[in-house]
Amino acid sequence: MAGAKFQYDESGGTFFYFLLSFLALVVIPCTYYFWPKDDNNADDKKGRRCRCPDCMEKSRRLRCHEPWRRTKRNAVRGLLLLGWLAVFATAYKVAHLEHDYVKWDPFEILGIEPTASEREIRRAYRKLSLVFHPDKETGDEQKFMMIAKAYAALTDEESRKNWETYGNPDGPGATTFGIALPSWIVEKENSLWVLGLYALVFMVALPVAVGVWWYRSAKYGEDQVLLDTSHLYLYFINKCPLMSPRRVLMIVAASLEYERGHNPEVKQRPSDDIEVPAVIKALPNFGENNKERPLCYEYSLKARALLHAHMLRMPLSPALDEDRQCIARRCPALLAEFVNCGAQLTMLGFAGRIARVPKLETLEGAMRLSALVVQARPEHSSPLLQLPHVGEDLIKPLGRKGIRGPLGLVSVSDRRVLLRNLSDAQYQDVLHCLECMPRLLLEVRTEVLDDENEGVITAESIVTVTATLTRLPLLDPNNAHSSTVNHSVPVAAPESTPAETPKVKSWEKPAKKRKGGKSNKSGKGGGKRPVAHANKAPQSVPAPQEQEAEESNSEQESDTVEEVHDTHDDEEDDWQDVQRRVAKKNKSLEKKSKKVSQCALPTVSRRQARVLVGVPGRQTPTHPCHRALLGHKPRRQGGGAPQVYGSVEARHLQLHAARAQ
């Protein structure tokens, strides 16, 4: 190659190739990421969006919150469409460009085949010369020069060799490289403007944009929460690992996102000095006397008061209601950051870097609080309050039927009867809301991968836990108006449940076997008889007090057996009903034990007592009840107070001695 030449694009042909590539690299990704999505998403198209008046008002309020949203979307769409128009126009221009460089082919110039003979080449040259010779009327000098050059390349041996080797009969020539930029960029008249634009874009605009982005992003964490707020959460969680949900809400309300200096959306009005104290006064157990900083600051008190008012659904003035919406909208993200901070401290605690690990109750309370804020429900309230048109007047009747949540309402067949106070339109709103609610099915599988028996977990093995979460609608839209009960959903147990198995009474139970292994039946031997029968001593008629004590003891034993049996049979009953029944039995046992303790029992000799209690030959018994029966004094432990013995067991021994006598 004799040499190379670099030149700018004079005609602009190569510049359009560069422009087309640049526009395609910019417009295609921007269209994918910045094309505005339609508000009517898939859920709206399926009709799964709640259409109750409150939800429609919420949608209208969200649209009014961003008045320029529609204008911004139209502007973005217009810019993207202009970009695509530029791409199509540039592509059309590139498709119709005239190529300056064309491969030189002598056979094509002479209009003959590459396999033509020398005679055919001469004949074609003479024929074209008669037409394009400059001396002729139809002559063309440039065309004739090309014809002569092609004829020489095919007839002259050296010219033909150069053409076959270099593509040019004159031999190797200079290679030209074009720069895909227009020539006016390097012209002397435009140098000042070009350098000024370069300095403005790359030395001013780009550094300023990067600096602003870095300054703003350095203040926030991963979830767009201020780092100062995260540090505040870490401090309070480390200070008090166990917190109630009310305490968690107090700390979240002190977040710097609710402070005017960190969030320009927060507004401070002169009317807050009058309206906020009135709201605080109406709230029970607000805790305004807490002097912890920043929990006692004005912005924190206002945010906490409005969050409590939001959960209690208190009516507020238009100004405070606007602030309430701003505060409640930010609260779920702050509670999620609170849980993340607790998880970080938990990992540090297990690593041994901190001494106090957050309690699980604290994180669980924060998670429940997030749902309560979204549903606008106070703590310990019924989940049915999140349904439209359902208030406290319907909660109590539904509670009597054992319905304590949306799942229970879905499971019953007489929903319309239970919600008869609602109109047809309101009832449809309730059904539509139940269709929008999710029912989650969780499937957990534990296994040891790359093992022969993956289901068997051995010591020090790495266990892989796979959780599959399936989201289904709480109420099937196809069966929303059906009168059958969906048995696949667990139903809340009502207070009165039908008896599945009849209770076995105490007198219907089989007789207990004695120590010998056989029941004591007359006429058939078996276990040993009592001592009194073995000695064949005449039985004396027991005194009235002894009969009463014996009857009380038998009643006490039967009641105890019946109590245990009832407790096992009624495990599926309501817990409160079981507690009432157990309390009633305990009272009856206390009365009967007092009655037994008041009975006058006859004295028993030590010899008879040793025989009765089964410790013959021992002069000093060690069991506390035996010592009390034989008249020994109770032993002391460590010089302290005497031991307290089980009075019921001692009375049983005394009753056995009385029967034997």
UniProtKB/TrEMBL annotation:
Q: Where is the composition biased (Low complexity)?
A: 537-546
Task: State where composition is biased (Acidic residues).
Answer: 547-561
MF annotations from Gene Ontology: protein transmembrane transporter activity; RNA binding
Locate the transmembrane regions by residue number: 15-35, 75-95, 192-215
State the Gene Ontology BP annotations: post-translational protein targeting to endoplasmic reticulum membrane; SRP-dependent cotranslational protein targeting to membrane
Q: Name one GO cellular component term.
A: Sec62/Sec63 complex
UniProt feature, compositional bias: Basic residues: 624-636
Q: Where is this region: Disordered?
A: 481-643
Which keywords describe this protein according to UniProt? Membrane, Transmembrane, Transmembrane helix
Q: Where is the J domain?
A: 105-167
Source domain of life? Eukaryota
Protein name in UniProt: Translocation protein SEC63-like protein
| Source species of the chain | Ornithodoros moubata
